[in-house]
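Per reviewer request, we include the raw input and output of the structure prediction for the construct analysed in the revised manuscript.
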Amino acid sequence: MSIVVTRPGKNQLVLENPVMPAAGTFGFGAQYRSMVNLDKLGALVTNPVSYRPHKAANGPRTVPLDAGVLLHTGLPNPGISKLIKQQRDTWRNLSIPVVLHLTATTPEDVRKSMTIIDNSGLVAAVELGLPDDLTVGEAVDFTRAATQQAETPVLVRLPLYDAYAVAEAVADAGAGALVVAAPPRGTARDLRTGAQVNGRVYGPLIKTMTLHLVERLAARLPEVPIVGSGGVHTAQDARDYISAGAVAVQVGSVTWVLPRAIELIARDLGGLVLTRKSDALADEWFTGMGKTDRTDTNDRS
């Protein structure tokens, strides 16, 4: 099946599966290749990239929570030009589209980055990550900077708390699709150092908030494709987003705990998983079993 993820334009992002990783959880293509069959995913969404290099954050970066984790990385990356050179061979050899997550820093940096991306010929779409606590005008400026001159389709990832306020303006400014939403920001105390750490919050409870937003925005903006992102840990979580009006979903932090979970979710939504027969014995079926697994349990079909 083909899934059209972006609105009509010069180019569109079309996927063969509605499941992809969330930005910041899957690296740049090589990190999980030995653990996940990338062919089963709809696309690769990269870690965040900026026009200029970013160094990793200092001090505590990870704080375990009762139902998730708080993460502060500083978005380390070598900058858009160097990153594309580094990943050129990896991305050329992938069988799935590359969606590059571009961090919006300034409109001018976004414009320059889009020119570099267009010229590379390696990226199927850009996911523009908007900063938190921005005004509607700032959201429009960033979106126009990414879309007005670019050939590459642009999905705009909305900040969770500002998503409903800026969604329509971002769509009117040229967004090909909306990603709902970026992980919320939070603060937690690191028990090892006693320091208060600010970062993004990941975990299954995020789904309740983002699913509600997806449902409301899908009803409000029926002509704009929406990608649901937040708290997807199971195939049912992904199906809940599709039922709420999303055309595709992103799988996030569960990958850090169970790397193959994203593949199983993609295979389930792609119709590649077998239903257990009523008379199947315990060693004749397992969760996520694919068609060729009946004859070769090492084949990750």
